[in-house]
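Marked as duplicate of an earlier ticket. Keeping the data here for the record.
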Amino acid sequence: MNAQGGGQSMILMIVIYVAIFAALYFFLIRPNSKKKKEEAELRNNLEIGDEITTIGGIMGRVVAIKEDEDAIIIETGSDRVKMKFKKWAISSINTAKEQPANATEKKGFFSRFKK
């Protein structure tokens, strides 16, 4: 009788560990990997003429993209100072680009229930 109760508690403990791991995956790992994928896509879609901000807060316009070095050259200010940065140093692209007409807005789980 005691052995059967021990087996059930072991199964319950395994189920709890699986649930904790699933929660960690959906709340920590998945959003982080999704964010990294979006940042990589942002850097790969960079074009000459885009206004960007670096992670150091430097703002400028892209004047050249060096794919072999994985770097960009930006021009800042009215004195046209040129600086070279690695692509990973780009924080955001400030140029407003047109969205394709057929692009649909991503909706979250709870936005489906809003009316």
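See parent ticket for discussion. The two ends are 54 Å apart (CA to CA).
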